[in-house]
Amino acid sequence: IINAFRDHRKFYFLGGSASWANIRGLMAANIPQLEIHEEGSYESPVVDVWGISDLSLFEEANNVFKKLDEPFFAIVQTSGNHRPYTIPEDNKGFKILTENDLLPHKVIDYGFASIEELNSFRFMDHSIGHFIKIAEQEAYADNTLFVFFGDHGIHADTGKHIPKSEA
Predict the structure, then answer these.
(1) Edge-to-edge strand order for the sheet containing 72-77?
(2) N or C: more exposed end of the chain, with fewer CB within 10 A?
(3) Rounded to the nearest 10 degrees, what angle do helices 54-65 and 115-135 cross at?
(4) Backbone Cα Rg of the chain
(5) Residue of 150, 21, 14, 32 lying closest to 76 (CA atoms)
(6) Could you give the dihedral angle defined by the CA atoms of residues 51, 117, 128 and 56, in that order, rounded to the nearest 10 degrees?
């Protein structure tokens, strides 16, 4: 699909290294003129094995997008919902929940394996919300379609919230 946008600049943003799982090779070999932004090309600090936080990743992408005068197609791949579930101190007002905040339920009642996993998913949502908020202040947002796609979710039993199929 991305190659069908012949008049668009093409970007791929990853908080860590594009060498992981040979992402660089796969993406660069299949998308001509792809501009890869990855660990080492950002001003934001590395927070864990996945590189910069999702919040910082969206801010870094926005800093690139707002300088563009031409149309673009971009992929911004988040990773904060993976262990070690790092939430940076500079988190733009994100409130970390504790088990006490969930009482009388337990975190497993919501389908999460741990409170850290729950908070990581909540932080990813917070990061996306922050990105939309800052993007709406930029000219590019007036003519941009934002699509968010999740590659995988939680692995814990989701109980009554998402019943298993009988298929």
Answers:
(1) 34-37, 9-14, 72-77
(2) C
(3) 20
(4) 18
(5) 14
(6) -20
CB neighbour class for 47 (10 Å; exposed up to 12, middle 13-18, buried from 19): buried
Q: What is the pTM of this model?
A: 0.89
- Alpha-carbon distance of 164 to 110, in angstroms, equals 15
Contact 69, 109 (CB under 8 A): no
- Print pLDDT tens along the chain (167 aa): 999 999 999 999 999 999 999 999 999 999 999 999 999 999 999 999 999 999 999 999 999 999 999 999 999 999 988 899 999 999 999 999 998 998 878 887 778 888 999 999 999 999 999 999 999 999 999 999 999 887 666 666 666 666 666 65
Backbone angles phi, psi at 35, to 5 degrees: -100, 115
CB 107, CB 100: distance < 8 Å: no
The H or E element that residue 92 is part of is none
**Helix ranges, 31-161 (H):** 54-65, 99-102, 115-135
* C-alpha distance across the termini of the chain, in Å: 33
